[in-house]
Design a protein that fits this description.
By secondary structure, this protein is of the alpha+beta class. The chain has 4 helices and 5 strands, in the order βαααββββα. The chain has a 5-stranded antiparallel β-sheet with strand order 1-3-4-5-2. The longest helix has 16 residues. The radius of gyration is 19 Å and the shape is elongated. The model has no long low-confidence stretch (mean pLDDT 93).
Length: 170
């Protein structure tokens, strides 16, 4: 997915609204099959077009946990340590349909994506006393009429040790 940043962010240098980065994440049906194998979620709505349509879906859709995972990857790469993410939560607001592009190649020579997620992140809050920063993620599928696929996607990242209170020092 991404590369960790060379320099870890410093809590004291962050402020609300500051961007941490953005990326486009291509998804193919092959990615869904690989994720199913890794996660154990072999529900046919994630790989079988006829089945997905038979249960009222627009077609094959990406796993919700895959969508969450590719979104938070932006945060873990920025933080330089996946273990620094101490909380991550979101609300699912839309499915991510993944078109069957098997056998098609993009201009860059990579497999043509069946969907592309656009992920961006910004500092939502800094808690110096706790040594944490909240990162607010925006996750969109630009191919949809209503592109937002995750709402209230927030990760809390520990960047420093919590500060001791006066009572704790006494």
């Amino acid at each position: 997915m991404g590369e960790p940043t060379a320099v870890r962010p410093v809590l004291a240098e962050l402020e609300k609204g500051q961007a941490i980065g953005s990326r486009r994440v291509p998804l193919t049906r092959a990615d869904l099959v690989a994720y199913a194998a890794a996660s154990g979620d072999h529900n046919p709505i994630h790989w079988n077009q006829a089945f997905a349509e038979s249960v009222g879906l627009p077609g094959v859709i990406a796993h919700g946990m895959l969508t969450m995972g590719v979104a938070v990857q932006l945060v873990t790469d920025w933080a330089g340590d996946p273990g620094a993410v101490v909380d991550y939560q979101t609300r699912f607001t839309a499915m991510v349909p993944v078109e069957d592009t098997t056998g098609r190649i993009s201009e860059d020579g990579a497999p043509a994506p069946g969907a592309v997620l656009e992920v961006s992140g910004a500092v939502g809050a800094v808690d110096a006393a706790a040594g944490t920063v909240r990162i607010d993620l925006t996750v969109n599928d630009p191919a949809q009429d209503r592109p937002r696929v995750l709402t209230k996607a927030q990760a809390v990242v520990r960047l420093a040790a919590p500060q001791e209170t006066e009572e704790e020092r006494a």
